[in-house]
Amino acid sequence: MSQLEAIVWKDGQLKILDQLLLPTKSVHLRIETVQQGWQAIQKMQVRGAPAIAIVGCLSIAAELQATLGDESPGAQHPDCESLHNYVSFSLAHLVTARPTAVNMRTEADALTKYSSSVRNTCTVAEMKVKLIEWCKNLLAEDVATNKRLGDHGMQSILDDAQKESREKVTLVTICNTGSLATAGYGTALGVVRSLHAKEKLGGLFMLETRPYMQGARLTAFEAVVENWPNSTLVCDGAVGALLNTHKVDAAVVGADRVAANGDTANKIGTYQLAVLCAAHKVPFYVCTTATSIDMTLESGAAIPIEHRPQEEMTRVAGHRVAAPGIKCWNPAFDVTPARLITGGIVTEFGVFRPDQLKEAMASHNK
Ligand code: MRU
What we know:
Blueprint: E1 7-10, E2 13-17, E3 28-31, H1 34-42, H2 49-66, H3 80-95, H4 103-118, H5 124-163, E4 169-173, H6 188-197, E5 201-207, H7 214-226, E6 231-234, H8 239-245, E7 250-253, E8 257-259, E9 264-267, H9 270-279, E10 284-287, E11 293-294, H10 311-314, E12 315-316, E13 319-320, E14 333-336, E15 344-347, E16 350-352, H11 357-364
Parallel strand pairs: 4-5, 4-7, 5-6, 7-10, 8-11, 10-15
Antiparallel strand pairs: 1-2, 2-3, 8-9, 9-14, 12-13, 15-16
Helix pairs in contact: 1-2, 2-4, 2-5, 3-4, 4-5, 5-6
Bound molecules: 5-S-methyl-1-O-phosphono-5-thio-D-ribulose (MRU).
């Protein structure tokens, strides 16, 4: 098992790498039920928009796998209709675990549609196998789309660098959008992986990403494991000084939900990074698979923002750091307006300006 494998499906069992324990401990946790999947997502033992959706779906697959062979009239799912209802109900529950990332809802809609389309075509046992297969396929599909978007992002950034006769590029990122946030490879860190594979990565600055510390704990871990050159951790508050004093070719960030106009919800701190990039004329790229694009929302104003418990701010690794009695404001995400996404929105279909997104998605959904 690779150190960076966040989601493992093997012999009909689902295991996730407990990201609350990284980087000091690598512990894989077995998920046997939908409720355990919901809790792991809510507690952020697994996190990152694509990983949340894949684990949610696979938690259903794990339950179905455990009941394969028990299709008697008294069984939990005696017929295809009741199995379909159970799957739809479980998906609706999983969507509630974390509200900002849209991926769980995207996959819930797709799996509900698939379940509905097969329910009249097979036996209960066959339907379970089909649903399990559908969920398992998400793993390979996610890696494939990540690789495609990684290569598109790489090309766009290298095209700009060539205009300045620069061979290698230095990037800045926030949060963790890599192997640990996906089925493997990553979105913004997928661009980093593609650049590194072509020996075009000069360096990577990563913001700590208070308060959950995805940058310090997870992206730094990926960078060290992968031996990315000149990987450097930066305090969130140091990013203005960083851009003022260092040559940074581009910012690459992920997305939890992109609205139809390109406004993007991502990890708290992304908006200030975008503002600072605009002030320092550093191209700002949102890197995302189409599963995080929500064409039902016109703008970012309608994106629900998750607020997390104040203990995430008042304590670091279990130790209290904030004065007892202080009030806390702890939004987990912010919205970056489309006008600040100056590099483009990098997807598996190519790189688009925010104002091209609607048309681009419409042509791929045909
Ligand atoms: O709270 P998290 O860790 O789930 O937030 C993760 C992010 O904001 C990522 O940038 C986003 O989900 C994209 S991960 C490929």
